[in-house]
Amino acid sequence: MTTTSKTKDGARGKRSRNLKLVLMAVAVPAVLSGCDDDPSGKILTSREECAVQTEISREQCEKAYSQALVEHEKLAPRFESEQECNQQFGACQPVPAQYANGSQHSFMPPMTGFLVGYALSQAMNGGRNYYQIGGVSPLYRDYRSGGYLRPDGKQVSNSSGTVYGKSAGNTALPARAVTVSRSGFGSSAAARGGFGGSHSSGSGRGGGGWGG
To answer: Which residue, 66, 89, 111, 206, has most beta carbons within 10 Å?
Structure first.
């Protein structure tokens, strides 16, 4: 082989390697970002459902449920009116004393579900392929709209089960519980222009996301 041929072959090989590197660089962000068709989490309505779901281990699921309950007491929306709370969620209870804002008497809805957000990667556990947990959030069923709301008032889905897309699986929690003074809580209230009547209370949260 002549020197010229070797030079041409070397140049083609270098271009081929560079092309592969460029394709890899383009592909990686696509995998990391996910798409709207990818499962991003699951809404469960009770601890008992941990025994029948298959995406995460039962132990992890029950741990997620317990964490959601802790976050629920700290971050559930606070209603100044028990009647308004019951109209939207039903079975509302007084806010626990340790999370009440001074002497203010307020009410919060029951936790009627919890969202387990999936991490992007999967891990083998005992020979089974499970999703890793990226975060946990308590949820509140708005009986007027049928939607499941996060503590920040944003709707996750109209039904329980697997949710898709990055936004639906988002388990980010607000820094403080939202106090609802009028017009209801959540996305449905925002659509009516009433969410401006809500504000953050002095009940802060400690920690967040998925605890080990």
So the answer is: 89
